[in-house]
Amino acid sequence: MSVPGLGRIRSGMVVLYEFTRRGLAHLLALQSVWWISILTFVWLAATTWAYPLLLPDEGRYVGVAWHMLGTGDYLTPMLNGMPFFHKPPLFYWLTAASLSVFGVNAWAARLCSVLIAALLVGLLYRFLRIYANQRIAILSAVILSVQPFLFGAAHYANLDMLVGGIMSMTVIAGATAVFQREAMRSDRVAVLCMMAAAALGFLAKGLIGVVLPGGVLFFWLLGRRRFAAMRHLLWWPGIVLFFALSLPWMVIMEVRYGGFFDYYIVYQHFERFLETGFNNPHPFWFYIPVILGLTLPWSVQLWRWARADGPRDTSFVPPAERIEQVGRGVMRGLMLSWLLVILVFFSIPSSKLVGYVIAALPPLAWFIAEVFEARWVRDPLRAERTLVISILIAVGICGLAVLAMVFFPQPSNRPLAQLLAQSARPGDRLVMLERYAYDVPLYAGRTEPAIVVTNWQDPDLLHSDDWRRELYDAGTFVPALAQRILWQPERLRAALCEADRPTYWILGRRSVVDQYPFLQRSETFDTGGRMLLWRLSSDTPLKLCAETPKTDPE
Questions:
Q1: Of 111, 117, 119, which is closest to residue 62 (Cα–Cα)?
Q2: Which contacts qualify for 68-77: CB closer than 8 Å, 24 or more apart?
Q3: What number of other Cβ atoms are within 10 A of residue 21's Cβ?
Q4: pTM score, two decimals?
Q5: What is the CA 150 to chain-centroid distance, rounded?
Q6: Model confidence pLDDT, tens digit, residues 475-500
Q7: How does pLDDT run across 317-345, given as a tens digit for each residue?
Q8: Residue ranges of the domains in the chain?
Q9: What are the φ and ψ backbone dihedral angles of 316, each rounded to 5 degrees?
Q10: Higher pLDDT pick, 308 / 501
């Protein structure tokens, strides 16, 4: 008995399989780094416009970049008009440039992550093509690019993809310098590239952008007993270049805001790393299932690498194809150091976020590519079939993830912000109750700081890791401004009772009416999201004001 439509589905799958197989054959013959990067960019960028910015991260970081664009101050990252020094400025600079060229939209906001991901795939391919062989280079590039983890990171406008990509580029440049010197060739350009990438890593994430790539190279060279190579990587013109690129911004910020260095370096880099009480606490082994799960279906091949089935030497490579310029064990040692340093370092603190370990994806792709390369030599047809099926499954997972974001979108304040932009008049004040909505200033086009109301004297605030702590810390650099916009609830009630008060647009979650019951009789705007917008004009009677007790009856 035949199932209706089953034949068409089967035929469609056959056509899709054959199309992918032929495309893979063209890729295996492709030797252009630019084409690899361009194809990766097209694949990653095709759907980044499909859903609004996610909260809180995308709203926060893109909002800071938009504020730079709106105010023209590209040096100081600002959150609600106050200095925001939790992160360095590189992501904000790149995103502000993208928004200025392509407009304020999700595609432009995520362009930085997409570009870095595409560049990383291209550079990994080039590195492996030169120092391994063409097949493992293209296999690694395909596995890395068509992978749910990298796909998701490229679709997310925060610092993780930028930092992971730049750290990986620093490792690649450093390893290139080592290989060139061992081949009796000049390594100076590669060392300068490594130092420039390290400086960009510092401007993207701080000391982590320097320490982790340095740790990868250090432990790799230590295992090989290449102590002279360590010294050559520290060539003094490269060090000068690093400081020339990384220090000016910090010096300017210290001059503008006293105490910046202590907060940005001492607290953000050292104290926070070992502190507890932050969001997202997870056990030490957290990243193992995360990486294995988010790199499906590729990660299922790792068990073959761990068994005797996996590659252990280069004996399976026919002499005609043995074009490696470095030993397989040397490359494997680099990839192992790369993978372990990233995983171990980020497993130490109790707070763990998924995106922290993006820099571990390139070496992981290489280990998986080793499995496919070994099988390709022994059984080309089977290896090709497994690879094509894995590509189709990975593309399917990525496609389903995008569809889920489109049809089951995450909460967004864009409708309320657009309503605010259309209805508010010059001189109206925006107030956020018990929540800072990161995306509202961006979507509403407001550069004026919002008044944020909560209990700023809460003793638990200094032990928190949320929007309150971010705004509180930012306010310490501009106390006068913080006093004007960070209000206690009592101050809001007093301001609403002033005779000549302006129109207040109040934004808050639906539940805030229990804490602020006067909102129940205010003009309410509801766009179906988690938050509501209330309008209190200068003539709106309020029972909380003693002078108008009869105008707002029960």
A1: 111
A2: 68/92, 68/93, 68/96, 69/96, 69/99, 69/100, 70/445, 70/447, 71/447, 75/249, 75/252, 75/253, 75/256, 76/253, 76/256, 76/257
A3: 15
A4: 0.89
A5: 10
A6: 999 999 999 999 999 999 889 888 78
A7: 433 344 345 678 899 999 999 999 999 99
A8: 30-315+325-407, 414-536
A9: -80, -5
A10: 501
